[in-house]
Structure formats: structure tokens, C-alpha cells
Amino acid sequence: MTSPSETTVMVVEDEFLVAASLEMTLQGAGYSVLEPIPSVEEALEAVTTRQPADLALLDVNLAGHRVYPVADALSSRHVPFIFLTGCDEDDLPSRFAGAPLLVKPFSPEKLLHAISQTLGEE
């Protein structure tokens, strides 16, 4: 079990205000947060060329592009992630069945609970 201060979170979100809110919530809980990433291309570059995060929050729809290639890249590196979406899990490809998912809007408490569950802290 790791503490929030030992956990780095990658936020992949194209809506500035949503990304800023996520960042504030995470930092307030003690997590280290990488600069939010607004596109699939930038997120793929970050996953493949930079030091990986301990967990990623992935907005499913980034300016009309699906984040699934990023989820695949994270999976291949054994980095857990949580999908963030305005849809439901039935809209996800079958390879992501059972992946953690938060439906927007969600409370900061629900986000932090999902992170703890995903990281096996509960």
C-alpha cells in the first residue's frame, strides 16, 4: 500500500476547467499530479517516452478522439487507469470490460474512493 504522497497521477482531460478541478482535488488529497494532458497524441507520447505515472485518469472523449490507444499503452506497462466519461460502461470496447469507470459529473469523494480502490488501498 502506498500513500498519496508517494503516488503520481496522470490526468488526460481536454476540458481545462475539469482538468484543473481534478488536479486541485488530487493535490489536496496529497497526490503528485503531472501536468494535465489534453490530447491522445500527447498522452501516448507521455506514456511511451516519460517516466510513467502510478495511475492515470482518462477522459474517454478527447476532442472527438477516443482515449483507448492510451489505455492500451498504459495496460501494456501495467499502469492502472480510471476512465472518466459522460457515457456508461456499455459504450467501452469489450477489452475494457470491468475497467474502473467514473461517470461525469462525480464528487471529489467518489474520485478519491475510486483511486483508492484501483490502487488496492481499500
Gross CATH architecture: 3-Layer(aba) Sandwich
Radius of gyration: 13 Å
User: CATH topology, anyone?
Assistant: Rossmann fold
Largest sheet: 5 strands, parallel
How many distinct folded domains? 1
Measured as a percent range, the helix fraction is: 25-40%
How many angstroms does the end-to-end distance come to? 9 Å
Give a description of the structure.
The chain is α/β, with parallel strands linked by helices. It has one domain (4-118): 3-Layer(aba) Sandwich (Rossmann fold). The protein has four helices and seven strands; from the N terminus they run βαβαβββαββα. The chain has helices at residues 16-28, 40-49, 68-76, 108-118, and strands at 8-12, 32-33, 55-59, 61-62, 65-66, 81-85, 101-103. Strands 2-1-3-6-7 form a five-stranded parallel β-sheet, sandwiched between helices. A two-stranded antiparallel sheet has the order 4-5. Strand 4 and strand 5 form a beta hairpin. Helix 2 (40-49) packs parallel to helix 3. The longest helix is centred in the N-terminal third of the chain and has 13 residues, at 16-28. It is globular. The termini are close together.
Précis, in short:
35% of the residues lie in helices and 20% in strands. The protein is an alpha/beta fold and 122 residues long. It is globular and about 30 Å long.
Main attributes of the structure:
122 residues, alpha/beta, Rossmann fold, 5-stranded parallel beta sheet, two-stranded antiparallel sheet, 4 helices, 7 strands, 35% helix
How is the topology of this model organized?
Layout: E1 8-12, H1 16-28, E2 32-33, H2 40-49, E3 55-59, E4 61-62, E5 65-66, H3 68-76, E6 81-85, E7 101-103, H4 108-118
Parallel strand pairs: 1-2, 1-3, 3-6, 6-7
Antiparallel strand pairs: 4-5
Helix pairs in contact: 2-3
